[in-house]
Amino acid sequence: MMTDAAVIMPKRSVKFDGIRAYARLSILITLLIITLILGTLIIQSGPAIFAASESLFTTNWKPSEGVYGIVPMVFGSLFVMLLAMAIALPIGGFAALAISRIKSLRAKRAWRSALEILAGIPSIVYGLIGVAYVSLWVAGAFDLQSGRIILSAGLILSVMILPTFLSLSEDAISTVPAAFRENAQALGLHDYEVELNVILPAAAPAIASAALLSLGRALGETMAVMLVIGSLDRLPSPLFNPLSSGQTITSKLGREVGESAFGSTHFSVLVLMSLILVALTIGLTILSQRLFKQGASR
Amino acid sequence: MSRSVKNHIFSAVTKLALCLCAAVLGFLLLSIMWQGGRAISLDFILSPARDFGTSGGIVFQILGSLLLVVTAALIVLPIAVGTAIYRECYMQLAQNKARLDTVLYALNAIPSISYGIFGLIFFVNILGTGLSWFVGSLILAMMMLPTLTLASHAAMQALPKSYRENAQALGLSQGEIIRHVILPQSSGGIVTGLMISLARAIGETAPIMFIATAFSGVSLPQSLLEPVASLPTHILALAQQSTDPQALQNAWGASLVLVSFVAAFSALAFYIRQKFSHLGQR
Amino acid sequence: MLQNTHLQIVSDQTETAAISMKNFSAYFGEACILSDVSFDVPSRGVTCLIGPSGAGKSTLLRTLNRINGETQTASFTGEVDVLGKPLIEGYPDVTILRRKVGMVFQSPCVFPRSISENVLFGRRDKKLSKTERRTLVETCLKDAGLWSEVSKRLDKPALNLSLGQQQRLCIARALAMTPDILLLDEPTASVDPVSARVIEDLLTRLSSKMTIVMVTHNIAQTKRVADHVVFLCDGQIVEAGAKTDMFSRRSCDKTRTYLTEEFCDC
Fold first, then answer.
1. Domain co-membership, B9 together with B50
2. B17 contacts A162 by C-beta, under 8 angstroms
3. Domain boundaries of chain A, sorted by first residue
4. Does B3 contact C125 at a Cβ distance shorter than 8 Å?
5. CA neighbours closer than 13 Å in the CB half-sphere of residue B206
6. What is the pLDDT along chain B (282 residues), one digit of tens a residue?
């Protein structure tokens, strides 16, 4: 018996494990993909750093004169993102508390599926709504010639990140142990005190993680922003004027990548902007994951 | 201010926020359905586009979109499942698992426009493929990879440990366990993940607009290396001519069709999840 | 099998009842958790609710703090008076009821804050001066028998305390509201035996100041701390009365079996 087993076991393990080879190949492909993407973007943005290094961090963008200042685009991206977050975070946070207060399970489930539908609408459709409604409303409200301005982009973007942020925050709130709520209630605290002093602090890491994730989404969003922001390669004046047209990194890329010649300095600067964007969004997402795990382990 | 007054104010503010969300949700869905409903007809769905899309229908855009995402799904499925198997069954070190997770999250974080630029540089220019259906599908497959891998892995991880232990006790090899226990038992979760990533991929515009699609005059591609038409890029082109009411109306029609596809994939995902969760309980 | 025995606690005290239930029933959806329960809890003293698991003890206790109302499927019938006022109509603002009726749960749940912040967690109504706060914290922690252990580290996180200490902190937190009634749901079930004895002693001390209602599975504990005992089984009251009566030959067979053999066949 013993000898039989000893003879059979090595044979089995020596046998070629097809599944293992297949799984290993798959993971190598996965690793290859991210290496290729990052490598390609880094290599292709190299020429920009050498050829346009003087003008790169200026506010002028004139490809015809060889001046490539990316500051307006970076500023535009951050400005639009901040606007969108300033609108979406408070609304999403309060709405998440409101959903967590709903007692009927059926109503809660209905809200959750509604949010999933909202999150599933493709960004190009949001862009269409921005073009057909939001920019017109904004133009009417502020008496402008064109509603294709930073504010419109911020509004559309806030609606786009709202469902994600809202449903993640609601998840975070509903995973706070019921004992916390009950103990605070048993002390005679009002609902708002329970929520502000007990529930929100306990859910804070996960909510912060949701906010960071939404931030990353907002930064990387292209189609809707590109259609409504007005594509003006200058810093707004005054600087924080949401009623001015502007440009984000993504809208710049969406408009010009197809038109610039591969290999030119112009193209390379665009790739550099894309690399900055990728670095920002990856950084935000990883930070968000860290926060989430930290919250879960507590 | 007394505490109960504060309580009422706070409660009113939360309700107001929720009403605002409901209003936005209602407005979005109603406007898509109402505007799209006016534009849509059997003729619109079944006839090809004319005059740069301002007249005619969207049949080739629908078929092109489906071709793109189905091909992408066929490419990504084996890679995602293989990666998930490797993480679940062959990775021992927690550190390596965390590293792989970071890679997947990073892939998920890369903005879709950057995928498009990567595709343009690497495939179209360096490899010289030209605008083509196949490159579009490849890029979409890359975008679907993290979602599908994470979903497949979650499905495998959710299997009770006892399944694997019992199979091991019967003397099955790791490969046999994967083939006969892990894969069949997690297939529901994998297919659900596939549907979710399909729903997301079919609405993507930015990654394919430089590398796979041509706007007008395209019918069905004759080979993998020809460009296709797609719904999202069609809507983009029409939205840019939004001053033309006819173009705008057709854009709404195409949007409604696109949203219906997204909803169909999501509903399928939901249905499969329900069905398999019942099987799991038995 | 079990007749609907309507029993009143036979109390020698002439004081009015702190809690009085008449024909009270509780349902979760279709399931009947408590059916037709009637009894009075006299003011002061410790009343122990005993009975096998699933008898409805916790539901009864949570009803008195109106914590059950959070579940949508829960519904109630019958009359309940707390401190002379009806439970629902008498307290349109539930927070006022909860400040008069303190509650301590089975597993200690301290908030991730300092020890003194935890004690003062429910005190938000009045602006308390610094000295008043300090006195209140000290009094409550002394009443809860925790002062000597934590007086040096009141500003340290409460989560660093042992489970037994955390549970006493929860009691101190409830005491800071100066409740008239204190409800405890198996307060010693998740703490070590030594802490359990400390908690029992402090309940006995507190019972001269307030009404204490406690759910427990521990017969020996009931014998030690109870003044009155209510024996629940399968959603109904089997017997209720003074402890001395319950533990003597005067109780019914079922009660005696449960109290001596910790076994119940209903």
1. no
2. no
3. 61-297
4. yes
5. 31
6. 688 888 889 999 999 999 999 999 999 999 999 999 988 888 888 888 877 777 788 888 899 999 999 999 999 999 999 999 999 888 888 889 999 999 999 999 999 999 999 999 999 888 888 888 899 999 999 999 999 999 999 999 888 877 777 777 777 778 888 888 888 888 889 999 999 999 999 999 888 888 887 765 567 777 777 888 889 999 998 888 878 888 889 999 999 999 999 999 999 988 888 887 655 443
Cross-chain Cβ contact A286/B29 below 8 Å: no
Same domain? For B233 and B155 the reply is yes
Q: Taking the model in full, what pTM does it have? A: 0.82
Contacts of C125 in chain B (CB under 8 A): 3
Question: For chain B, what is the domain count?
Answer: 2
User: Are B210 and B272 members of one domain?
Assistant: yes
Chain B neighbours, 3+ Cβ pairs < 8 A: A, C
pLDDT number for residue B161 = 79
CATH homologous superfamily of A61-297 equals: MetI-like (1.10.3720.10)
Residues of A in contact with B248 (CB under 8 A): 132
* C142 token code pair: 């002394």
Q: In chain C, at which residue ranges do the beta strands (DSSP E only) sit?
A: 17-28, 31-42, 45-50, 74-82, 85-86, 101-104, 181-185, 211-215, 228-233, 236-242
Q: Which of A34, A132, A223 sits opposite B236 (nearest CB)?
A: A223
Interface test with chain B among A11, A14, A17, A26, by most B beta carbons within 10 Å: A26
* Contact between chains at B205 and A131 (C-beta distance less than 8 A): no
What is the residue-wise DSSP string for A239-276? TT-TTS----HHHHHHHHTTTSPTTSHHHHHHHHHHHH
| Domain region containing B228 | 42-281
Asked if residue C196 is part of any domain, the answer here is: yes
Structural domain containing residue C41: 17-109+180-261
Looking at the structure, do residues B172 and B275 belong to the same domain, yes or no?
A: yes
Chains contacting C (3+ CB pairs below 8 angstroms): A, B
Q: Are strands A61-62 and C101-104 parallel, antiparallel or unpaired?
A: unpaired
Find tokens 């670095």 and name the residue: A279
Whether residue A52 contacts residue B121, with contact meaning beta carbons closer than 8 Å, is answered with: no
* Structure confidence at residue C127 (pLDDT): 75
Q: What is the distance between the alpha carbons of residues B105 and A293, in angstroms, rounded to a whole number?
A: 13
The pLDDT assigned to B260 comes to 94
CATH number for the domain spanning B78: value is 1.10.3720.10
Total number of domains constituting chain C: 1
CA dist., res. A66 & res. C87, Å (int): 80
